[in-house]
User: What shape does this take?
Amino acid sequence: MNSLEFTAMIFGGSLLAGFLGALTGLGGGVIIVPFLTQVFHVDIHYAIGAALVSVIATSSGAAAAYVREGYSNIRVGMFLEMATTAGALAGAALVAYLHASIIAIIFGFVLIYSALASFHEGSHARQDQGPDRIATLLRMDSTYPSSTGPKSYHVRGVPMGFLLMAVAGVLSGLLGIGSGAVKVLAMDKAMKLPFKVSTTTSNFMIGVTAAAGAGVYLSRGYIDPGLAMPVMLGVLAGSLTGARELAGAKVHILRVVFAFVIGALAIEMIYSGFTGRI
Amino acid sequence: MRTTQTDEHMDELIGLLLRVGVILAACIVLVGGVVYLAGHPYPSDYRVFRGEPERLRVVSGIFSDALAFHAQGLIQLGLLVLILTPIARVTFSVFAFLYQRDWMYVLFTLIVLALLLSSLLRPG
Assistant: This one.
């Protein structure tokens, strides 16, 4: 296989991963790693390096479109980013000390969780539970646009949200993923934010968290230009197309098919981890 | 408290910043990719992890390699621009909170910024 063929195949696979990641809301990073390690037998360090770079590209690309809609809560995002960036630095540092098999096994379980979480529609109609002492002190309560004008909401569960975000950061740095599923869990379930606010604020945070991990990866030599180039360009192009298609697609059927593919890849990764083939 | 008008204005600026960063990064990576494919007929073996050489790991090395128009240095420079895009956004937020005299959030944002820069500037 020559360089052009190799690059074209990685680009094609990344394009598909980015497209499906955007359509299903799973993100491209979580699919790229098993694709590179299981199909192309790429070492997991190179795979997570290339994936994390593509996560920054898709998150920033999508966030550019979202910020103007006024859903994301910048204060909540910035406060929680202290937890995610610190977590990401710790996670990325941890990669050097953990055996590739262990990373693969953790990855497999996170993959299964993400696939299951993509079916969760979120708590759309929720009774507002009134102000919370810490959230008030941190001036987090805000409003979001609705058909009947701006709707105000209260933020709750800040310590629990902060803790979960630190976990999301560690996973992002350790596995080269955006860990959007854990971020949405923290904001939707623990902090009781409206669902649209959770998802857009999560997107706002993914790029910053990934940048922290990617800085460590770059200086540790995990980011190989020959591999990261087709992955980054492919995932970016794919996710931009996917986001455009989102409105008219039969997302539910796709999500089911995709969840099975992800599940199979995850089990294969866990199996290779336990048998030491990775 | 800031008004909705300045809010919208800032959101537009942030959106523009992110878009420009990603497009610029993609263009540099693309140019580097073309040069790379022209000069590397066979792909590297990624099955065994070796780690990148110093010149592709540190910021100064990447700059000098890219200025010499080496393919790998160009791609790495594009990826560096990509990593810097969210960092630029956080920097922008520091000024936005300063403008609002929201000292608590200026502090939080500076902490995030320090963590981000530490990842890039510390030796591997």
Q: What stands out?
A: Chain B touches chain A through 65 residues (CB under 8 Å).
